[in-house]
Amino acid sequence: MSLNLSWTSWTAKEIGTQTDSVLASKRAGLDAVFAVPDDERTFANTIAALEYADNHAADIQQQLDLLVNVHPDAVIRDAARVAVDRIEAGTIEMEYDRRLWDAMQAWVAKNETLDSVDRKLADDILRDLRRMGFALPDEQFTELKRLTTELKKQEAQFEKAINDWEDHIEVTREQLAGLPERYIDGLKKSGDKYIITLEYPDIFPFMRQAEDSDARRELATKNLRKGGAENLTRLTQIIGLRQSIAQLLGYASHADFACEVRMAKTSATAQQFLGNIIAKLTPAARRELVGLIDIKKRTLGLEKRAPIHFYEMTYWGHRLLKERHDIDSEQVKEYFPLATVMEGMLGVYQEVLGVQFVPVAGASLWHDDARLYEIRGGTSLVGHFALDMHPRKGKYGHAATYPVVLGRKEQDGSATTGLIALVCNFPKPTESDPSLLAHDEVETLFHEFGHVCHALLSGGRWQRQNGFGVALDFVETPSQLFEEWVWEAPVLKRISKHYQTGEQMPDDLIKKLQAARHHMDANHYLQQAVHALYDQRMHSLPLDTTVEPNHLAQMHRDMTLQYEAIDLPDDAIMAAGWSHMADYDAGYYSYLWSKVYAIDLYSAFKPHPLSDEVGRRYRDMILEPGASKPEMNLVKDFLQRESSDTAFLAQLGIA
Ligand SMILES: [Zn+2]
Q: What pTM does this model have?
């Protein structure tokens, strides 16, 4: 099927028509499945028919979602946003239909023999319907639907309260000592005072570099109260609703309910993983802390060693980084003009994965800045991707990968190839400004492009089994693996060219970057693990207990002291401002979990980072299967052994 780009030029009116057509085709698809007599049910006319009916709707939903985020015209963005909401609401209404479950049960009774790919599709769909409450008696099913609706509402309010939360400190010019001029120039002012808000561009540099310790304490304390007491109470209500849902569905906890569909399978496994990592990281983390205590004593001329407070970790960590490694990040940037990095990166991916990227000339997308590429494997077309790299008004402001069309087989046997959009916000290069990237931006680029390749290379049969469809605690793994490349000398050479001298990054600068990479990382990952454990624990409290706001906050303060040796103020209510509790509940461990797997998988590349032989195996055994096999099987197949945390810990210097 040739690539359809007509959606890029839809008018607001056409968006409305498309929305109607999605809802109508969804309705017709479901009705067709309902109409099959029970004794004639087959995989083809029941499970597969539902999938096929979804293909068209999914394309349009994804195209609309991209338009919301990238279209230059606000009228189109708004129309697309309304359409996305309408489709979502309409779909939920249609899918909460008991006839769907009855049809599935009639098919299950026929005991049809399937191959493993179709079997996984059927099992996953049945499992998801059971998790929606379809196996429950009518009264409980209705109750579950009510609880779910209420939960969604509360989660949205919880998130909104965090987004709307505004707090700040006001400081004098003197209190900004230690901060760069560029930062100070960007601050808002109130009279003579400078305003430091809780927004990342304000608070991060301030906590890292402001010499005024009292001001840092004041700001950090406010940050630990983000969301406010009311939001903490709301979170306890949200946890209560999640408990009620888990109880109705027969789970021991919400955390178990959430983990069932992931690699971890149970909360116990996730907690065991976290406990184990915490124990192994702790000695190294404490050694790092001693380093901070020493530099603090030395720098301030203290008589005795003083503890590191919650508002001092990043500050002394940064001081120590400068003392030990002294990397000039501006100098590093000079080696990374956007065009060189892009060309180098595409080259590395092509070579290692054995694919070719070919620019498509003259393709008309949503904006002139967006460029279309074909991805080919030998003579066959694998799919397309679009790069939209520069900022503009109304565009999504970070780096993200959007599925537009996911590859699959159609009902008539033909193949649809995928289209993925990579959206970034690097300044447009000009004659005088080559758009220089910081090293962490290069890392993000490699990460996001990993999602592009995972999505395009995966999923042969069902779009649901695309790379984007793998479990939450595995979906970042392939991309996290590709991040490793930007720390390897041969890759850094290939993607760097000094914007003035044209030289590749010199060996000594590469060595410096590598040496500083894991500075304070034991504490970084320890904190991540403790947060993740907190998330698991708050979502696995006994189902018949009512969670008290004070208890919830106390739990976090206790765990921080016990595991991180950091004493938080008595009024700290971190969870009230933790937006992941709305959308990543009982899932925060995924970041660390997927990272450990990524580093383990990367151990196969480690001796030869650019080996096309390993790359080919990685493509065949991890990327291409997508979600058509259990993730743990992919890992074992590739590694030819059980996975372990050894490589991850070794990278941090922990044996
Ligand atoms: Zn990612």
A: 0.95
